[in-house]
Amino acid sequence: MHVTPIRRWITVIAIVVAVFASSTTLAVAKAPPGYNDLTDVWPDSVAQARCRPGDRVETGVQGEVPLSDRKSGRSRRGYNCNVDLVGQLQNEGTGITSASYKQCTYTGTSFPTNLLNRKPAGVNVIDASDPARPVRTAVLNEPAALGGTWESLKVNEARGLLVGTAVGVLEGAGYISVYDIATDCAHPRLLNRGAGSRLNMPIPITTHEGDFSPDGKTYWASGVAPGYISAVDLTDPSRPMVVWSGITGISAHGMGFTPDGKTMYLSNLAGLTMIDVSAIQNRKPRTIVSRPAPHIGQKFWTDGQITQHSIYVTYRGRPHVFSMDEAGSGGAKLFDATRSSNLKLRNVIKLAINLPRNQTRAVASAGGNGPFAYESHYCSVDRPVDPRRMACGWIQSGIRVFDISDPDRFREIGYYNPAAQVGKTFTTLTNSIHAGLANIAAPPIIGAAALGRAILQGQAPLTGIVNDRSRLIGVDMTADWCMSPPQFRGDLLYVTCSDNGFLALRIDPRAGTAR
After folding, report:
1. Which InterPro entries does the record cross-reference, listed alphabetically (predicted)?
2. Where do runs of H (alpha helix) occur along 110-235?
3. Which end of the chain is more exposed for a tag (fewer CB within 10 A), N or C?
């Protein structure tokens, strides 16, 4: 092991994030008076779940796969609390995010390693009519599916449509496929056989992520940089047509919408941009929109970076927005969105491993397992009106389930962190983003800002970061990456994790929800 380069890497991190050292907060039960949304760090973690006798509970702090468990092999057994495995279909692993509709799940693809698959490469269609025995019923192999769907694979339930775009590595362009899944979700039918699906007929979009407007008539494609987004008209899904595009800032990631589709909450580098997209929403079908989409508000923060996506909900009729950060241990934030131009932070979900005092511990334990450690990524709620539960892919912390029925008193219901697939590589898990592309960087660099800030503010020690499992490249596979949004089916969750593939999980109803 070469320790010197790793120490140099840590020094660089500390210098880069010195700008974040402007404030210090105390670890109290809730944000103290005077809490600054822009500069402060949320000081506490969500109330921990009470597990059942016999559960394979976490042995470290909440959300952690400890270094000792990785060394001893304990992480190969996985962890669970109030959530049980019903059925699994690992296949070749999965890409970053997958999508579900009724009893079917569509697994994301990872380019280029998915092309190494000995079986037909592409988006796997999984039918979980019997959750204990899920089966692969089809493989979608259009250019958009083969080219790595990243975070673009989405379903619109209102119209029964599935859309994916070709992202390649980080950012792509041109290819989009639209499928009918309402007729038979286990055997999707390609609708656009021309533009977007043929190699010689790309359309003018950049791709990394995307989502539908609520009515399913528009698919919004976003490229990470320079904040370029495009509105693809799907009024006639057999003929996708770009009707509007524009640059929204230096970065554009995931998005959420008000129910009428007229306001977009666009995730950016460190916050949300609220955009009036009513001109696009109210357009005539297949009509180019020349009007701008004005910004109506901005909300920035330094507690977490690379904001992932947002979910619009209401509590007692009052609009709110959940926003997740995929970097910097920012967790899942809840904003009062009564005024979209002026979001008000109300509450935050973090695990104990995300707190400043545990940042050194987090990097030390996950130091050989790729760029992402214990970050929130994609979440879903059981219902948008007065939601009761939220389930999240929390990367190396696995699948986490929370009681969110009281917006001021969140608590954890349970978790399921699948068995580590130690010994397997991208040669067998050809579609796993973790077993494949993650090998380019072993240290958890996505959390660098949170680590540097905690050290500079004296909340975490500098010593103990480097250990005998630290490395610069390659992943040790000692914990899976769970990045996809779990989808609620009553007490069941349909979800995918990179190495373990498709999982059907059941939440123990005795774990409770609303008080």
Report:
1. WD40/YVTN_repeat-like_dom_sf
2. 143-146
3. C
| Backbone phi, psi, residue 342, to 5° | -150, 75
Q: Is 38 exposed, middle or buried (0-12, 13-18, 19+ CB in 10 A)?
A: middle
pTM assigned to the model: 0.92
pLDDT of residue 83: 98
Residue type, 121: A
Q: What DSSP designation does 76 have?
A: G
Please answer whether residues 205 and 168 qualify as being in contact, where contact means their C-beta atoms are separated by less than 8 angstroms.
Answer: no
Rounded to whole angstroms, the Cα distance separating 122 from 139 reads 6
Q: Which residues pair with 488 in a beta bridge?
A: 493
431, two tokens: 């579609």
Range 440-463 average pLDDT: 93
Angle between helices 3-16 and 448-456 (to 10 degrees): 80
Instruction: Please state, as a whole number, how many other Cβ atoms lie within 10 Å of the Cβ of residue 312.
Output: 18
Q: DSSP per residue over 40-71, as a string?
A: -----PPBPP-PPTT----SSSTT---HHHHH
Return the SS3 of 6. Answer: helix
Beta-carbon-side half-sphere exposure of residue 62 (alpha carbons within 13 Å): 22
Of 100, 64, 98, nearest in space to 79 by CA: 64
First CA to last CA across the chain, in angstroms? Answer: 52
- Alpha helices, H only, 419-504: 448-456
Phi, psi of 364 (to 5 degrees): -65, -45
Name residues whose C-beta falls within 8 Å of residue 33's C-beta, 6 or more positions apart in sequence: none
- Do 202 and 247 form a contact (C-beta atoms < 8 A)? no
The Cα–Cα gap between 138 and 411 comes to 39
Q: Where are the beta strands (DSSP E) in 343-465?
A: 344-349, 378-381, 389-393, 399-403, 411-417
DSSP 485: P
Which region among 9-23, 100-114, 366-380 has the lowest average model confidence (pLDDT)? 9-23
Strand locations in 328-385, DSSP E? Answer: 332-336, 344-349, 378-381
497, 94 contact by CB (below 8 A): yes
Answer whether 392's CB lies under 8 Å from 378's CB: yes
Going by the DSSP 8-state scheme, the letter that residue 88 receives in this structure is: E
Instruction: For the beta carbon of residue 194, count every other beta carbon within 10 angstroms.
Output: 11
Taking a C-beta distance cutoff of 8 angstroms, is the pair 17, 452 a contact? yes
- Ramachandran quadrant class, 9 (left: phi over 0; alpha: psi -120 to 50; beta: rest): alpha
Rounded Cα–Cα distance for residues 87 and 89 (Å): 7
Read off the pLDDT of each residue in 224-250 and give the average, rounded to a whole number. Answer: 94
Residue closest to 66 by CA, chosen among 357, 375, 376, 396: 396
Amino acid letter at 82? N
